[in-house]
Amino acid sequence: MYIGLDLGTSGLKGVLVDGDQRIVAETSAPLTVSRPHPGWSEQAPSDWIAAAESVMASLANLHSLSGVTAIGLSGQMHGAVCLDAEHQVLRPAILWNDTRAAEEAATLDADPTWRAISGNIVFPGFTAPKISWMQAHEPDLASRIATVLLPKDFLRFWLTGDMVSDVSDAAGTAWLDTGARAWSVELLRSGGLDTSAMPALVEGSAVSGHLSSSLARKWGLPDGVVVAGGGGDNAASAVGVGVVEPGTAFVSLGTSGVLFASTHEYSPDPGTSVHTFCHALPGLWCQMGVILAATDALSWFARLAGSEPAALTAELGQLQRPGETLFLPYLGGERTPHNDAAVRGAFTGLSHASDRSAVTRAVLEGVTFAFRDCYDALTATGTRIERLVAVGGGSRSRYWIECLATALGHEIEIPVDGDFGGAFGAARLAMMAAGGGGAELATMPPIANRVAPVAGMGPAFFDAQERYRATYRALKTVD
Fold first, then answer.
1. Cα 351 from chain centre
2. What pTM was estimated for this model as a whole?
3. Is 233 marked active-site?
4. What mean pLDDT comes out for the span 282-300?
5. Catalytic residue among 109, 153, 166, 233
6. How far apart are CA 2 and CA 73, in angstroms?
């Protein structure tokens, strides 16, 4: 049997999977985010350990773990966990959606070496500019940094005692030579670090270490349990949903939004703000368009409306043409295609006729238009998308999926009920690391539904998309 642990922003999820890839047990523990200043987003790494303790204890209560042979890890990317020489955490982890390092990111990105080696723009949310921010604003702490770990890799250190990362997660630091799948000495030196501060690197399906005997005894696991390299959350989700072949892609309607496509070639195009990372499987890369607020935008509006997201979307009925009310979902800046940490969200076209349903539709449409921007950015690099699967909590809204299918002009497949996300992908990587197979294990799930673009709606969505883009350009002129 195999365990997959997925360290998200709002919670840590664990699944227990048998040899036939059936989920035998699953559980989760919540996490909270601290925002001590505007644009900041932090978590205490000790909270991740407490959540993992809770999840593992719960799995042990739900099912015997005596047959577990491997554990896989998935996690939120880009977070900076800074340890001193005694392996003590120096400060709360600075998370992926923290934008405080916008100035430092721009400074690094102005040096063309960063894009040339990493294959990406240096985004404010990436790990490298966070360390530059600490060097400028917390020099005493920065001078004590001995090791920088990513969030899931801090959990790995606790589980195994080994400081290791995988190449898919490491690609989001900006320090990786993404084509070579290795740390860049030049980029690390430019950022004031060296390879001694970095964990060892493995592929996601490789062995990274073994579970400590004390933790194995505590949860009833056998000795010698393998811990796989695992992956960044999106790469692990791609393994979970079977997006491992060129032409396959998924659209994730989670807290953030991701359009993820698998490729066999390393073909970066940083100017598009598309992320080009290593995949969690050897010999594969991926491209992603990332928007910072997807279901997060709907949850934000639901709080204002005194309702729940599912209740708001349930009121909408059949898909309608986009109305005059327009929403830009840039609540905390945006990545693809704008790389704009300063832009903020906006409503336009509000009138006396703008009731709750009209504004809900505008929120769903605004996120949809952001995905269309990502789609155009990915396909402009030459990436082809032939088969598109929807995952994440927002994919349960038929209205939203019809919006997306119509705006993208592409059929979207909905898997059968079940969890095929990061935790399941991590369990698959664990199975591979334990010798249970290779990439052939990463099959696509059974499909419950296929949602085609709504006939006759395409032109209306195209026109609204153009208004959306024009509104962003106009918003940029407002100080």
1. 36
2. 0.89
3. yes
4. 93
5. 233
6. 11
